[in-house]
Structures are given as structure tokens and as C-alpha cells.
Write a structure and sequence with these properties.
The chain is of the alpha/beta class. Helix content is about 35%, strand content about 25%. It has eleven helices and twelve strands. A hairpin with a 2-residue loop joins strand 5 and strand 6.
Length: about 280
């Protein structure tokens, strides 16, 4: 019997009505700056924030707009986010076969999930996923910028960077697979202090350091795992946007930091290498 993970934070972190949600996401994407150069390529991986859309939506949109050239090419999204409510050891898959938002249903990639269950650091936890917002808030953006895709949703708890990297490598795939790490940056500092802390954290991410801690980013663990993979695959990180809730929502007394990063190869992949990767992944 197929099971569904229903939307848990619709109407709180983002609009709950389908038309309102679609209009909100499309407005955020329309306002996001495009790359200066006309480049048809798209990132292999993104880091995006996961607060309510009024706070972090513009920063997330600045990354997701980069996927528009790949609307029909990206067919699998590996989505990693930190657990906020239920502590777990390792990395958790959901028990559900699909995730639902007001914009529709996204199927979990059963083949990838089966491969990951063979890893000792991967478990299945309905509890870890049932109320977790870090993954859910990314789905309406993905549903808007991509055509049909399957999802590999991973809630990340107490794990090493190497353990997370091993999980990502198992489902790395070719250009049809996108890796998304969901993370905010520093929490509840005054505006000026947060700007300084988050700039330093952004420099660490750009350097592909795998030593971030949870004072720098709530998603430090999946970011560190992605950094290891990025180095191994010759990816470079690009900082797209770096702001905080004081910039987007006005209150600068206690802010949360947000950043958007894209990861891509130094040199564009040739058509031949892209076809090879797709063949190997298939």
C-alpha cells in the first residue's frame, strides 16, 4: 500500500492555498537576478535556506532560478536537510512513497532509496520526516522550476562528513540528478555580528571546507558532506546571495542568516561526457 507524507508547514512557512503558493513562488523567481553571462549549463548542486518564504524566499529563489535551463533535463533531486525536531543517528529516509505539497505530489525515487538502505548510516524514520520543514519548503520551488522529477529526501542527524558524502556519492548520478542541501546560517545574533559571522561561513563554503559547525549553519553536517563530494568531482562553489532576516523582514535585533550557493565544474561538461554519465547512472 502506497503511503504519502502530507504537507506539514503549508500555511505557516509558505502559503497553503495552491494558487497563492504558485503566485508567491513565481513572484520570487521573477524578482531573482539572472546570471550575467548567458550560460545554458546548470549547477550540479545547490545550497539554499529553509525559513519562511517572507524571510528566506528571495535568497532561495536566486539559486532556483539557475535551474530553469534544465527544466526538462533534471529528473531526480537528492534533497538533504538537517533535523530540527527529532534527533537521529545518521541519515534518514522517509517511510512514505511520495511527498505532497499544495502544488501536487512528488514521488520518492524507490530505486535510489533501496540502494541507500544498504549503507549502515542510513535508516528509515517516519518521525524524522513527518514535521521536518527543512526539506518540505524546497519542494514548491522545485515543482515550479522543474518538470517531472523523483525525490530522494534525506533527513540528516548525527553523522560525519564522510558518512554524508558516502550517501551522496551513492546517488550522484549524471546531469539528470541535482543535489540540494537545505541550510540556514547563523541564528539570533544582532545584525552587524551576523553579517560578519555569515561572511566568514560563506568563505569556508567557497573554500569547500568540511569543518563547519552548527553555530555557523544548522545544516553544517550535510554541507560538510557536500564539500567532500564537490572536491572529489572537481566542482567549484559560487556564492549567489548572502543576506539575513534583517534584510528581508526588517527586524535587525535578532536575525537569521541565509545564503544561496551553486556548485558546478570548472570546465563545462562535453555532450559526450554527459551522455556517458547518464548511461552509467541508468
Amino acid at each position: 500500500m502506497l503511503t504519502v507524507r502530507p504537507a506539514a508547514v503549508a500555511g505557516m512557512f509558505y502559503p497553503g492555498a495552491p494558487h497563492a503558493l504558485e503566485a508567491s513562488v513565481r513572484a520570487l523567481l521573477a524578482a531573482a537576478p539572472r546570471p550575467a553571462a548567458a550560460d545554458p549549463a546548470w549547477p550540479k548542486a545547490l545550497i539554499v535556506p529553509h525559513a519562511g518564504y517572507v524571510y528566506s524566499g528571495p535568497i532561495a529563489a536566486s539559486a532556483y532560478v539557475r535551474l530553469l535551463p534544465a527544466r526538462s533535463r533534471i529528473r531526480r533531486v537528492v534533497l538533504l536537510g538537517p533535523v530540527h525536531r527529532v534527533p537521529i543517528r545518521g541519515v534518514a529516509l522517509p517511510g512514505a512513497d511520495s511527498f505532497v505539497t499544495p502544488l501536487g505530489t512528488v514521488d520518492v525515487d524507490s530505486a535510489c532509496a533501496a540502494r541507500l538502505r544498504a549503507l549502515p548510516q542510513v535508516c528509515e524514520s517516519e518521525a524524522a520526516h513527518s514535521l521536518e520543514h527543512s526539506l518540505e519548503v524546497q519542494l514548491p520551488f522545485l515543482q515550479t522550476v522543474l518538470d517531472a522529477f523523483t525525490l530522494v529526501p534525506l533527513a540528516v542527524g548525527d553523522a560525519s562528513a564522510a558518512e554524508v558524502a558516502e550517501v551522496i556519492e551513492q546517488v550522484w548520478g549524471g546531469p539528470e540528478t541535482l543535489i540540494v542541501v537545505s541550510s540556514d546560517l547563523s541564528h539570533y545574533h544582532r545584525y552587524e555580528q551576523a553579517v560578519e559571522i555569515d561572511r566568514s561561513t560563506a568563505d569556508d563554503i567557497l573554500a569547500l571546507a568540511e569543518t563547519l559547525d552548527h553555530e555557523q549553519a544548522c545544516g553544517a553536517t550535510p554541507i560538510n558532506g557536500l564539500a567532500l563530494c564537490a572536491r572529489g568531482h572537481g566542482l567549484e562553489a559560487e556564492l549567489i546571495d548572502l543576506r539575513n532576516s534583517g534584510d528581508t523582514a526588517g527586524d535587525k535585533s535578532r536575525v537569521v542568516g541565509y545564503a544561496a550557493f551553486a556548485f558546478a565544474r570548472n570546465e563545462p561538461e562535453t555532450a559526450a561526457s554527459m551522455r556517458l554519465e547518464e548511461t552509467v547512472d541508468a
